[in-house]
Predict the 3D structure of the following.
Amino acid sequence: MLNINKLRKTDHAIISIGSHIPILQSMLDFEYLAKYDQPSLKAIIATGRKYIRMFFGKKEVLIPVYSSVSDLPSNIRNKITLFINLSSARRVLSSTCDVIAEFPNLMGGTIFAENVPEKHELELYHYSQKKNVFVVGPSSVGLLISNKLKLGAIAGTQAKQLVESQVFTPGSVAVFSASGGMTNELIRLTSQAGKRLSFSLSFGGDRFPICTPVEAFLAAEKDTDTTHIIYFGELGGYDEYELADLIKSKKVTKPVIAYIAGTISDMFETPPQFGHAKAMASRGEETSKAKAEALRRVRIKATNSFTEFLSLVKKIPAKIHNIAIETRHASSLRIIENRRPSLFINSVSHDVGGSVEIVKQDLLTMVKKQSYGWIVASMLLGKPVKSKELAEFFDFVLKLLVDHGPYVSGAVNTMIAARAGRDLVSSLASGLLTIGPRFGGAINQAAQHWLDGVGRQVEAHVFVEEIAKAKKRISGIGHRKYRIDYPDPRVKAIMAFTGKLKYKKYTSFALGVEKVTTAKKGNLILNVDGAIAAVLLDILSEKEQCSDAELKELIDIEFFNALFVLSRSVGFTAHYLDQRRLDEGLFRLTQEDVVYV
Amino acid sequence: MARVKLTEHKAKSLLYDLLGYSYHGVSIDRKGLSQYAHTLSKDKKYVVKVDQGIKKRMKQGLVKLRVSSYELRDAIDELAKKGYGQFIIEEMVDYDKSDEKYLAMERTREGWLVSYSEKGGIDVEEHASEVKRAVIPYYRHPELGSGSNRDPDIHRDDVEQIAKELGIDINILKQLREFCEKYFVSFLEINPLVVRKGKVWLLDLAIEVDSTAQFFIRDGWNENDIVSEKHKTPEEIAVAALNKKSQAAFTLTLLNPNGSIWVLLSGGGASVTIADEIHNLGFGKQLGNYGEYSGNPNAEETYLYTCSLLALLLKSNQRRLMLIIGGGVANFTDIRITFKGIIQALAEYKNKLKKKKIKIFVRRGGPHEFEGLTAIEEWLKENKMYGLVSGHVLPLNEVVGATIKELRSPPSRG
């Protein structure tokens, strides 16, 4: 059940199903203007991206995006108290059921979509009653509590509209309407008449709104701030008879002013369908006249004329409002109206008046205190490294991969460019552009293998068989020279870094694979690339607490290859300088070097 | 949209199929008779009914009884003369007046509201006091409902009582409920339901389905099975097509082709409020149309909608025309963008509108209200169609008062 007092007292965490940026942004603007420290919107369910950038005041904030409610981390999941469902009518039933089932502390939410089938509305009605959550909608612009909560487009999507409607000064008038447009119209009208809102909601124009007028009226009765209720009703349906019963039985005692629209329908023998789905009076009791009469019988000020309705609203006693509080929004409004989105976001570095910050730390202090490995690892991760192990391992690998002799293709290309008289950057680029799937790109591919194998919990021999069947090679396995009985001393040095690790699941898996492959052929050993990938995965997982999803992301963005590129740049640069010093002139192949077929 | 009527022919085809009966009714339009002629027997008598979702057909003379096959063409021609184009032909069933029962089911919040009476037939409304009502709760989706409500035989007593009073098998009621659930039926009425010696005939069947459920119905009815009660103008058809294609919503209904007050409104609630005000001030008969747009349409869509409306308005034979462009204070519909489309359409019909000496009255609020209103004010003044332009400061209903005041005043010369 809708409980306004409780909603006022709660610090909310909101999830949005689907995204409709102007609506969500207006919710953040509302909270900024209501002087919140941070937005209540904690997550958006959508596809195709990781974050949505939104404004909180002038500052941009990133709202995390998840592809389904089940992907939400438990720390957010347990906090969620409210939802706003902005998905299409087709997905309303299933997505709302998911939300209600998934979040233990959910109090309720609103549904925006029009054209939700009656049957689905009723299923949600019965389900939400059973689960004791309130659901406003479908086809609703939402729920508003003055200076506390805006859940939907209600009261407008422009900050200016919100300020003009004075929704930041808590008042005593509750406004209800089936129509979204009329909800906002009445909010505006109430504030222009000098009154202020306690709360407001739009039921939506469907035949079976999940939050019924009865529920809303009972919420207003229980709400300590509300003294008066303003209600915009329409032809169609029988809601007003139930309201009349509530008043007759004294379950609602606060004064009500009602306008029941739709007298125009009486002109027609076969009335047309009006704007809302429910707005069709097929039976006599459903006409606006009959319904207004029913309300008048229980002494409600109900009218079929908007003019009369307006004069009744004006007669509600107005409290004196603190103008100082209401005008203070002017400066905040200017900030909102003059902001513009930034072109980039970054989490690596910052420059404020010449003093450089790297991953939120002062560069100069860092240079004095930290190793080169620490700085590189932190920058590549976009956050300060937590463990000594990762910094040390980076330091080691940056040294280890620095060069591998002049014969490898990247070095050859660098030397050829240098001998052709190109400059440093061109020659270096020529070498770097050689790095790819066959040269230097093996660490990333090996990391992909180990993450996949461990993630699927397949046994090493099955894994090897799968790749053999697909007629592919395993990256990180095999060496031209070294063999199982003549091991690579560099691999041994890399493996030494696992000494301080506890689980070593990636390294164990890689060694398992090596056992299978070396049984087939002696030189199919775990090579430098494969070993670096495995040990780095283990350190990231155990010492930096990277989740599987984060590890996968690092592989997707080529984090593992970055290590090779950085280190080997030193080697390529050295070969360039060396060739220039020796100055041998342009390199050319001879006919014997290239076979013509 | 919302609850819409299906043709009786489609409704019966689906229901008979579910009940396991075979259905021999023939659905035809005026031209279609010859192609079905071979299925009709010379020895049998038939019933011909208008199949366009009309209530009280019998009393309006839209049903022809005991028609032999060679009289069918005449019967249809006679009904067609009354302006109808869709018919259903069924075999004539003879029965006693006392065999006529009434049964209706409507989807309500707590369950199926079943109305039934032992005295059915065309006079059922005269025996309204004898129509009994019972609410049979929905059976819940296993995951949604509580354990105790899962049993489909819940409230068996009620269902048994209804079956007993009507003299029908309880399974028929269960199947009717299954039918309504399966096809998203909101309202079903069988009148008369003829029951004779345990045998059952569903003589006349009317159902309303939920038009929003089309996506969820794999195999059953579709939009072609929805009846349209009256002849629609090309402009109304164009708006219905626009509505179907758009994320936003559009409706347009012609009320009086020769009206003098026309309305271009936005929002379900505000549009009814403005139409009410016209009616309450005694000018309801002069209202040319009803309609509204909502859900933040783009400029192109608003342009198309306005064009359809202006085309209807320009056909009115009134010497003076008033147009109200009205709406509440929008939550998220962009006024600058929607008004851009409206102005584009007005500009296209500019000369014809000037000939009609049209005056245009605007009241609207919402996002980018100032920009939108400024643009239309300039345009209306420049083209001498200005009646009034106001934002949220003017109460919604007062735009109607200003329009009527202008309509009552003598036309200005020149």
Notes: Residues 219 and 471 of chain A are 68 Å apart (CA to CA). Chain A touches chain B through 71 residues (CB under 8 Å). The radius of gyration of chain A is 34 Å.
